[in-house]
Amino acid sequence: MEVTVSVGHPVALARTLSPNRRGPGDPAHRQIADGSLWRCSLMPSGPVTYRLTRAGDDAHCEAWGPGAAELLETVPGIVGAQDDPDGFAPDHPILKEAHRRFPHFRIGRTNRVMEAMVPAILEQKVHGASAFSAWRYLLRKFGEPAPGPAPEGMRVPPPPEVWRRIPSWEFHRANVDPQRSKTIVRAAQYADKLEAITTMNREDAERRLRFVPGIGLWTAAEVTQRALGDADALSVGDYHLATVVGRSLTGKPMTDDEMVAYMEPLRPHRYRAVRLLEISGTALRPRFGPRTQIADHRWH
């Protein structure tokens, strides 16, 4: 099954969907040398593999599997056609220039809450390399092989009932500590209620997500950015974000509270501003000293 979506401006698929890629070798996300982008998802109607390509102002999607028809209905959101940047008029010259260079940048939404939730939980307070490795392990172990002509090794993220039943020792083998594994299991227990946030406003959606023990402001923002395409979801509590925003826009690091106050005039486009710093190459990363050792929980 396939569909073509006319976006009305040049489509940048990789840029729009890159936040959904959880590290190198993500079994649910693959970009091919020909420019096509392959993804796997689990829709209420079943698993699906889909391939996105672009042609000028159009995005073309082919889909395979029981969830194909349902997935195709969400393609406009996935490719950012439902994002509305109107009203984003930053005063800072760096943001103004980034917006001028990338006027057609859009934020996509997948409408798949658990598929954004689990990797976000895995990324809580650990090195990205460790979280990405855990995601790869768990998908390869418990994910379903991708339907259709997907690139070799792709997997569909498991359904909530599988996440709920993953034994503690398998999380241990994935180097996921008990706190994060328990949070994943709790989220899976509330999966139906969490998936319902796709019909809520952002305040109610955040409140619903944070009802789950172990889901705080940072994790809720990471989920709404991807699942809801929330252009204002600022990842407060991120280990580096306040420093990056501060150095990039003021020349000096900020605390989280300072970042929130500084970016208040950018509502409801604070996440859009952060993404523009990233994609324009103007985000100034801190100069790191020697990296701390990645915690290995498998031998505890």
From TrEMBL:
GO BP field: base-excision repair, AP site formation; DNA alkylation repair
Coiled-coil regions listed: none
Principal EC category: hydrolase
Documented EC number(s): 3.2.2.21
Catalytic activity: Hydrolysis of alkylated DNA, releasing 3-methyladenine, 3-methylguanine, 7-methylguanine and 7-methyladenine
Keyword set, alphabetical order: DNA damage, DNA repair
Gene3D superfamilies: Hypothetical protein, domain 2 (1.10.340.30)
Cellular component aspect of the GO annotation: cytoplasm; protein-DNA complex
GO MF annotation: an example: alkylated DNA binding
InterPro entries: Alkylbase_DNA_Glycosylase/TA (IPR051912), DNA_glycosylase (IPR011257), HhH-GPD_domain (IPR003265)
Protein name: DNA-3-methyladenine glycosylase II
Upper classification of the organism: Bacteria, Bacillati, Actinomycetota, Actinomycetes, Mycobacteriales
